[in-house]
Amino acid sequence: MALDSKIPNGPISDKWTNYKDHINLVNPANKRNIDIIVVGTGLAGSSAAATLAELGYNVKTFCFQDSPRRAHSIAAQGGINAAKNYQGDGDSTFRLFYDTVKGGDYRSREANVHRLAEVSVNIIDQCVMQGVPLAREYGGLLDNRSFGGTLVARTFYAKGQTGQQLLLGAYSAMNRQIGRGKIKSFTRHEMQDLVVVDGKARGIIARDLVSGEIERHSAHAVVIASGGYGNVFFLSTYAMGSNATAAWKIHKKGAFFANPCYTQIHPTCIPVSGDHQSKLTLMSESLRNDGRIWVPAKLEDAKGIREGKLKPTQIAEADRDYYLERRYPAFGNLVPRDIASRAAKERCDAGFGVNKTGEAVYLDFAAAIERYGKEQAYVKGLDANDTKLVTKLGAATVTNKYGNLFQMYEKIVDEDPYTTPMMIYPAVHYTMGGTWVDYNLQTTIPGCFSIGESNFSDHGANRLGASALMQGLADGYFVLPYTIGDYLAPEIKTGTISTDLPEFVEAENNVKARIDRLINNKGTHSVDYFHKKLGKIMWNKVGMARNAQGLNEAIEEIAALREEFYNDVNVPGDAFSLNQELDKAGRVADFLELGELFAKDALHRNESCGGHFREEYQSEDGEAQRDDENFAYVAAWEYKGKPSDAILHKEPLVYDNVKLVTRSYK
User: Fold this and answer.
1) Beta strands 422-431 and 189-197, pairing class
2) Whole-prediction pTM
3) 103 and which of 149, 278, 333, 644 could share a cystine (Cβ 3.0–4.6 Å)?
4) Which pLDDT band holds residue 1 (cuts at 50, 70, 90)?
């Protein structure tokens, strides 16, 4: 099967505008006769559902949470990018486009990224009109801060809870449509399978997670907005319920899965403290605006800190290694996430880690507190040489910018980050891979669309900070509502789709058979037992650094673990009531397949790029070494019964507007 990305012709700056001018439209009267299913109600799903319903379509939304507003988008802390150039510091649509392509290590599709940069400016206006309380400067103008991989300040934010505030805006828009009857919201429902009729997506099979009832829902189009698959690692910054089931089910029905090995490791997470943990907690990248990252320059000092004989505040400035500032002077602490993560791992592997496990570095705000304190002292006409006063004023400024993050850190670690540097270490945070989509955001299954983190299209091999919220809202508010109409225009002749079709019956029976198999297995180990074992394989052999031997071992070990899971998993309870162990079992079963494809994808890509780092392919100074001659393509995998049999399809990546060069932040 040839992959047709449907990228429009013409100059990149005109592609989206010209495309919108010529695609098919559905008139308002006909929209009332068309049904759309949206799976997932995070920023992408809720904004898409609200916009589609506002346009007149009949929308059904599905989420496994008890409310759409509890989607994992609320956990996004630092901000959302937009090329507004409010700071007058040289930002532009092209610069945002360029930074995103470069940040993704030249492994993203140019046309999609430029469109994202174009519509970014509309997102901020939309959110302000919804009442989202974005931070403002003293004069009332919207404020911006910097994020990794850029030399401008383009990140809009709402303290350290940007995702939550943006989701509440989209949720309010959704609620308006629910009140009008244009959206039917199905909470505590999980998609179990996609129904394909005559080659087109025509509905889903869902399970009511409270009653256990299996339901059939039909539609003229299905939109997957279910987020990423980072919980394949077990420990991650994702919510524990985040899963890959919806995306994996459509993959098994014919949607190609692209670049699964492109997974982001976030550099500023609270370190692992032991096997008792079920998830990890993110400290926003926005903290790298003001926090300086360092480790002791002397091995004996690092050892003394680990043994509790020294405190970080006792390490003299001259004996600290601000390694990001040393290695990447142009960007310093604001290098992209993949680079900052690998640099932290390198220092810790060399013995300079600062917690008991040796897997942590410091994020220090002392310099920022002093700088802000002196500035405030001057503004208020006070003594800028009064250390105690300066510290108090500086801490107050930091609290205004990041207070809830500092509070969260202190509650988890039981240390005051105002007086003791935070300890951070990289952790799985986001997935750039996902279902393959064309320019319309349609998968290889006609009528099945994928938006937000569940698709692969915008971030290449590494996502720049504050771009996840941008992509989710861009897809939902400003892209999908146009492109889905092009597909739906001929569907006005279809009429209502019956759920009594044989394809619905077959899909429902298959879902029930899978559930019965899990419930009746009566093995000896819990679901978490297998999930943790999978996570350790993934982190140790498919994590921050990979090599051919480890990947081959991972593929074999995951396949064996999957067989053991089906032979020995124990799911207590029954299928006809609230049963969270059954919910987890279905999700982990999908992770056990996805994990193998993930490793297979990483093994075939004999290069290092972005979040995919193969130890065999690195420069003398430890930087990622791309192979543009052989791997400048999207790897889209077709399901053929099991991950080991998946067939690779390639979409060549053509760069007409950005020159392919070695990525450098030095």
Assistant:
1) unpaired
2) 0.96
3) 149
4) low
